[in-house]
Design a protein that fits this description.
The protein is about 25% helix and about 35% strand. The chain is an alpha+beta fold and about 450 residues long. The protein has 3 domains: about 1-200, Sandwich (Immunoglobulin-like); about 205-295, Zincin-like, CATH 3.30.2010; about 305-430, Neutral Protease, domain 2 (Orthogonal Bundle), CATH 1.10.390.10. The strands form 5 sheets. An 8-stranded mixed β-sheet has the order 5-4-8-2-1-12-15-14, with no helix packed on it. It has a 5-stranded antiparallel β-sheet with strand order 9-10-11-16-13, with no helix packed on it. A 5-stranded mixed β-sheet has the order 17-18-19-21-20, covered by helices on one side. Mean pLDDT is about 95; it is low at about 1-15. This is Aminopeptidase N. Its main location: cytoplasm.
Length: about 450
């Protein structure tokens, strides 16, 4: 409505130095309910979002993240209010005491597109040649719905998407319903395990659905078959059985693998769903390992999610180590072989990475992935296989649905093994020089 409402212009603190301008620590979202309609031709998205929130402190105004889309109306507790929407931040007047619940509803629409962030490139809603992908890590969630865009603000979800009838819609969560509505089809998904905003996704395309074993669903072009598919995506049920043995029960209902007809540079992580280009249907190890990597993220990154982006090794190091574990299980190189291979390679690179806090410029540097995996291999070498895998299972069991820190992981290690491993973690996480692997 108007831009001159004083209570809605009070700036709120953002929450993570790696992602300035995102998130508001003064409140949290407990549940998102989204009603969306999308037109593929013309890239038009219309949304109605209802957010059930709780104040973490006394507030008179809160801020939501919403990029590139136009806000039509905002309601608080069912009452329409004035708002401001500037620089991808939607300021809303809310008067609530600490601990008090309130509901915010936002009607919005426009032509969604990716959001660019310094050091991190673009992320978010993106048109394909014929359809849509959403790649939101770490800052793209605001390109398609209003949210409190911080990884520690996990909420349950329900979303309904109206799309053209000849398109398939895949989203984070379980498919709760599908029905014809006019010339389109309305798809409803629910996610009952709390999810960070950046892990929510919406994939739209002309796909065929294949239900594999172990609750694995492949959503892909109908002509994607043959040895390359069998060597990569068809291996996911076996990967699921192996990872459940090592990490504990799969944390969600089904696992969906979307394969777009377009080639993609990298796979895309989201909760209960991963997205690949058809170029990842390959017998090459570099494709197969990434299929394993994205599945492992369901435990490490999605069920258990970092509180701050500085702890990104808790996601990428763990998923990278899962690649090495799968290689060994599949009868290829052992995890120990991979560890020594990558240790030798890292030893020849710059020693300027602090794994516990790499900075936004280096948070997705390959050294974070490999040194994070080496940290786990060093821990495994010191504590032995029984305690190591019990640490991983306990980590997931105790923290699914929660937000965590490196200190939390160190505490689980100490509890399971009976000994703090401060020297090991100091050397691998908090010193830039690469330590030797334990013999």
């Amino acid at each position: 409505m108007s831009d001159d409402y004083p209570a809605a212009t009070m700036p709120q603190p953002t929450t993570d130095p790696y992602l300035p301008g995102h998130g508001d620590a003064s409140y949290g979202v407990r549940h998102y309910s989204l009603g969306l309609a999308y037109k593929v031709v013309g890239n038009r998205l219309d949304g109605d979002a209802r957010l059930t929130c709780v104040a973490h402190e006394d507030v008179s105004s809160i801020e939501l993240d919403l990029a590139h889309l136009r806000v039509a109306k905002v309601w608080v507790g069912g009452v329409q209010v004035r708002f401001t929407h500037k620089r991808d931040r939607l300021a809303v007047p809310v008067v609530a005491a600490a601990g008090e619940e309130f509901e915010v509803r936002v009607a919005y629409g426009g032509s969604p597109r990716p959001l660019r962030a310094r050091h991190l490139g673009t992320a978010g809603w993106e048109e394909l040649a014929d359809g849509v992908i959403v790649a939101a890590q770490p800052h793209g969630a605001p390109t398609w719905f209003p949210c409190n865009d911080r990884p520690s603000d996990k909420a349950t979800w329900s979303a309904t998407v109206l799309a053209p009838q000849d398109y398939h819609v895949a989203m984070s969560g379980e498919l709760a319903g599908r029905r014809r509505r006019g010339s389109g089809v309305e798809w409803t998904y629910e996610m009952t395990t709390p999810m960070a905003p950046y892990l929510a996704t919406c994939q739209i395309g002309r796909y065929t659905v294949r239900e594999l074993a172990e609750r694995v669903v492949v959503v892909a072009p109908g002509d994607l078959t043959g040895p390359a598919y069998d060597a990569s995506f068809a291996q996911q049920p076996a990967m699921m059985r192996f990872f459940e043995d090592r990490f504990g029960a799969y944390p969600f209902g089904t696992y969906t693998c979307v394969v777009t007809d377009d080639d993609l540079e990298i796979p895309l992580e989201s909760q209960s769903l991963s997205t690949f280009g058809r170029n990842f249907a390959s017998e090459d190890w570099d494709a197969v390992r990434l299929v394993a990597h994205e599945l492992a993220h369901q435990w490490f990154g999605n069920a258990v999610t970092l509180t701050e982006w500085k702890d990104i090794w808790l996601h990428e190091g763990f998923a990278c180590y899962a690649e090495w574990l799968w290689s060994e299980e599949a009868g290829d190189r052992s995890a120990d072989d991979w560890a020594h291979h990558h240790h030798e390679r890292l030893a020849g690179l710059d020693q300027d990475l602090l794994l516990a806090d790499p900075g936004p410029e280096l948070m997705f540097d390959d050294r974070v992935y490999k040194r994070g995996a080496l940290t786990l291999h060093a821990l495994r070498s010191v504590v032995g296989d029984d305690d190591f895998f019990e640490v991983l299972r306990t980590w997931v069991a105790d923290h699914t649905g929660a937000s965590v820190t490196t200190a939390d992981f160190e505490a689980v290690v100490a509890a399971v093994t009976g000994e703090e491993r401060t020297d090991l973690f100091d050397a691998w996480l908090r010193e830039p020089a690469l330590p030797d692997l334990p013999s």
